[in-house]
Design brief:
The complex is a heterodimer of chains A (about 375) and B (about 525). Chain A is mainly alpha-helical and about 375 residues long. Chain A has a single domain, classed as Up-down Bundle (Amino acid/polyamine transporter I). Chain A contains 14 helices and two strands. In chain A, helix 4 packs across helix 12 and helix 5 runs antiparallel to helix 12. Chain B contains 18 helices and twelve strands. In chain B, a hairpin with a 5-residue loop joins strand 4 and strand 5. The longest helix of chain B is centred in the last third of the chain and has 39 residues. The chains are: A mainly alpha (about 375), B alpha+beta (about 525). At the A-B interface, helix 5, helix 6 and helix 11 of A face helix 18 of B.
């Protein structure tokens, strides 16, 4: 664990940017058709429930990283094994998101640039950032948050002003009943992006005022959830649910539809700026969690030295996890939620909490925070 | 890197000894002392030794030694030579005192008189403009302060012009400089600490701060870093800056410098520490923050709206000076579809005849401009016009007519050039000039993707910097709401009541409550409902 402290508002900003990372990129919850936005809102609520699991675990061990308290909860050997699994999980997701972004950039702007180069450039920036530590990441987040929000507001105004929004595209609400929506929540939106907040358990110990974590996280989840909901709703209402579900990157198409005064058009850069910033944060945080976790499990003195080797691993696995984009997407929809997100975000933390609860029952009154 | 630097700057012990700072005591024989002095100084012609005989009962021999040019010869004549030679009453005055005491106490009529016992002190005083009085038969001498000589008068600082504000600028004389600040802050809490840096040059360096406002830790840190310096010479504050900055490999400056006394006053009032170096009008102050490099004195002297908007403009323009050519390259090379159609037609019509890719064109123009700018600075003023004519014709017209560059590129380069002059701090502007070339390469290879990544990396880099332990990007990141009032905007004085939180001590209140002005109550123009603090 590096010697660093971040404050609650920085945590808020980091979570916000992190959550937005995927949401800006891919279409979320579209199995629920035009009710995707409801699925996202419900996913957010479900994500908050998960967050309380993580928070209670953190409250049992407020000063140490999850990779360390796993060892305290289930014993040294199993704990280390579990911690390693989590590190692999974080690295895998980092590689996945990296692949997502690389593929997007290749499809939409850089047809002739090799995917590897695109990924490598992005990852160079990430390696540089992660080497600087969590404090620098948090400060960077504060500045980019403002930039991103500015872009989002301008983009929103432009979409509204160009008169693209067709509310009827969102109707009928709940056409296929609540069942489809709930199924979407359980299979998709619960995990991505809201359950992914598990990665922040690796960052909670750095927060200088532990009592503010709850407020910061919940408000960040709420704000990002509402923003993602609005984004999705706008995409659907502009493009219609058919186009959105067929489009690779609905938000990009939405922004491309903007035309104001025959001058402000093709604002792809808008999309690119937001996308790269948010994606950058998402990958950085996953990667940072992996690096700190590894250095914590194996007690290495200098965390920053692990950045380069791990960076290469993530970069190369981003190339090798799938042979094509469609395979990558299929894995992401079928394999990852069931075999990665569900156990790592829901089952293992819940079990850990249960064991921790039993173990700490006697001294509960002393340790547990108000 | 740091290892190599340290090795490079390792103190040269031999040089230190050779420079004669032995603490050997003075001899009692005047002649021997003078011989030793002449040997040591190699009979330098500007070192004047004036031997006198004074009118006491023993006709004691006295020598007056000074370096011509750095002393005030009038005060030597009037107050030393004249009083020593013509004072017939010396014998009466002497009573039972030694000659030296009598001279020190009753004859010499200049401000500061110090005893010296060893050669080290003697050379130090002599070289810094004191006049030395040696007396035969005494193992000590006197150093009288007769500093003087030619110096530049106080003028308007040429590098920091302001519309509204004082016209005084620092000079090369450290005493004048500290005095200029003292005159502005008439408070005994203003502290000046002095030290000598440079084994060979023995340059006076002084730090100035306000006790009770400046943070003790930062003062200590500044002192520690200054004391650690071991180098033969300090010819400008740039030497010091390079030796004490936090981040030597960053293109961004982490120590701000100024030649305006009002800027130094403002900064020490915010709790910073100023570093004066003798021989240069540029005064450093630390810790410095990123936003500080975009603040100009006019912001504080004009009304808050104007100050804020100009400051905001400067930061935006800084981004233009960084990104304008790179954006043009990226847009024309990779993202033509993002340029509005009409504009694209115009641009492509222009570029049709140009034989180079956009990035080469940009490089040609940028480098030409850098050459012109450098020539403009180095050239004698008399030929300056030639450069501007050649520059305007070559860059502006001939290059376009010859079809080497497109007119749009000329516009971009011109905007960039003008933009880079709006940054008040030269060292920050030059950082942008350097980075711009890397950005152009990135833009040519990765388009907007490269530019956005570079923007992120620059922000990450800026956020990772610290100046004397203070995060460089504060109060933006970490965001400190209380300090935001004087960052990229400036709130009016009655709203911005606190000193920067991270820099100073707990003594942060600078403006009292109820300061918001308004029309008088008596006319019933406005009911004042002032909220106290």
């Amino acid at each position: 664990m590096e010697k660093a402290k971040i404050n609650a508002s920085q945590l808020f900003v980091l979570i916000f940017l992190f959550e937005l990372g995927s949401a800006l990129l891919v279409s979320l919850g579209l199995s629920a058709k035009q009710d995707a936005w409801i699925a996202i809102l419900l996913g957010m609520v479900a994500g908050m429930v998960l967050f309380f699991v993580y928070l209670s675990l953190y409250n049992y061990y407020p000063d140490i990283l999850p990779t360390e308290y796993m060892q305290k909860i289930v014993g040294r050997f199993f704990g280390k094994f579990l911690a390693c699994l989590y590190i692999v999980y974080f690295m895998y997701i980092a590689a996945r998101v990296l692949r997502d972004f690389g593929e997007l950039l290749v499809t939409f702007a850089y047809n002739e640039t090799p995917l590897f180069i695109i990924n490598a450039v992005l990852f160079l920036a990430i390696v540089y950032t992660v080497r600087k530590g969590i404090e620098v990441m948090a400060r960077t987040g504060e500045i980019l948050f403002v930039v991103l929000y500015f872009l989002a507001i301008v983009g929103f105004i432009l979409v509204v002003v160009s008169g693209l929004i067709e509310i009827n595209n969102l109707k009928p609400v709940l056409e296929e009943g609540m069942g489809t929506v709930l199924k979407t929540v359980i299979t998709e939106t619960w995990y991505v992006p809201f359950g992914e907040i598990i990665v922040f358990t690796m960052i909670f110990p750095y927060v200088n005022k532990p009592r503010k974590i709850k407020v910061a996280c919940l408000s960040a989840l709420a704000l990002s959830g509402i923003n993602i909901t609005i984004t999705t709703a706008i995409s659907i209402s502009v493009l219609g649910v058919d186009l959105v579900s067929r489009s690779q990157f609905p938000l990009l198409n939405t922004i491309q539809a903007i035309q104001v005064a025959e001058f402000l058009e093709r604002l792809d850069v808008f999309f690119m700026v937001g996308l790269i910033m948010a994606g950058f944060f998402k990958i950085s945080i996953y990667f940072y969690a992996a690096v700190t976790g590894l250095s914590n499990v194996f007690n290495t003195k200098e965390t920053s030295k692990l950045v380069y080797p791990l960076g290469f691993v993530v970069l190369f696995s981003s190339m090798t996890i799938a042979s094509s984009y469609s395979e990558h997407i299929r894995e992401g929809l079928q394999f990852v939620p069931l075999y990665m997100h569900l156990p790592f975000q829901v089952i293992i933390p819940s079990l850990l909490l249960l064991i921790a609860f039993i173990k700490n029952r006697k001294k509960k009154k002393g340790v547990h925070q108000k | 890197m740091s290892f190599r630097l340290r090795k490079f700057f390792r103190p040269n012990q031999k040089a230190a000894e050779k420079s004669g700072h032995t603490t050997e005591p003075l001899n009692s024989s005047l002649q021997k002392n003078l011989d030793a002095l002449n040997n040591r100084t190699g009979y330098s012609s500007d070192i004047i030794i004036r031997k006198l005989e004074i009118e006491d009962n023993k006709k004691t021999k006295v020598a007056i030694i000074f370096v011509e040019g750095i002393v005030d010869s009038r005060s030597i004549n009037d107050f030393l030579v004249h009083s020593l030679v013509s004072d017939g009453d010396l014998q009466d005055k002497q009573a039972d005192q030694s000659v030296l005491d009598t001279i020190a106490d009753k004859v010499v009529s200049v401000g500061i008189v110090n005893r010296i016992h060893d050669w080290k002190k003697l050379y130090e005083s002599l070289m810094s403009g004191h006049t030395i009085i040696l007396v035969d038969g005494m193992e000590q001498g006197l150093a009288t302060s007769t500093k003087g000589g030619e110096k530049r008068s106080i003028e308007e600082p040429p590098t920091e012009i302001s519309i509204r504000g004082p016209r005084e600028g620092f000079t090369e004389n450290i005493r004048t400089n500290t005095a200029l600040v003292r005159r502005r802050i008439k408070n005994p809490d203003v502290r000046v600490k002095s030290m000598t840096i440079g084994q060979v040059t023995n340059t006076n360096v002084e730090i100035m701060y306000i006790e009770g406002i400046a943070n003790k830790k930062i003062i200590q840190e500044v002192c520690d870093r200054l004391e650690r310096i071991d180098i033969d010479s300090i010819l400008e504050s740039g030497y010091i800056e390079e030796l004490i900055e936090d981040e030597p490999v960053s293109p961004f400056p982490t120590i701000h410098f100024t030649e305006r006394p009002d800027v130094v006053s403002g900064n020490i009032l915010e709790g910073r520490v100023a570093i004066f170096v003798n021989g240069t009008p540029f005064v450093l102050h630390a810790p410095s923050l990123f936003v500080q490099f975009f603040q100009s004195v006019d912001d504080y002297y004009s009304r808050a709206y104007i100050g804020s908007s100009l400051r905001f403009l400067r930061i935006m323009v800084f981004l233009i000076s960084l990104y304008a050519p790179a954006t043009y390259v990226a847009a024309t090379t990779f993202h033509q579809e993002m340029i509005p159609t009409q504009l694209l037609i115009v641009l492509s019509a222009q570029r049709e005849a140009v034989p180079f890719p956009a990035v080469v064109e940009a490089f040609i123009m940028e480098i030409t401009f850098e050459i012109l700018r450098e020539a403009g600075i180095r050239m004698p003023k008399a030929v300056g016009q030639t450069v501007s004519i050649v520059g305007a014709l070559v860059i502006g017209q001939a290059a376009v007519q010859a079809g080497i560059v497109s007119p749009a590129m000329v516009i971009i380069v011109a905007i960039t050039a003008i933009a880079s002059f709006t940054t008040p701090s030269y060292s920050m502007a030059i950082a942008a000039r350097l980075i711009r070339f890397f950005l152009m390469v990135l833009a040519a290879s990765f388009g907007f993707y490269g530019l956005i990544l570079s923007f992120i990396v620059i922000i990450v880099h800026l956020c990772s910097l610290r100046s004397f332990g203070i995060p460089y990007m504060s109060p933006l990141a970490p965001f400190i709401p209380a300090d935001f009032g004087d960052s990229i905007i400036r709130l009016p004085w009655w709203r911005d009541k606190k000193r920067p939180k991270l820099i100073g001590t707990n003594n942060t209140v600078r403006v009292g409550g109820n300061q918001e002005p308004g029309p008088p109550d008596s006319r019933d123009m406005k009911k004042k409902t002032r909220k106290g603090d």
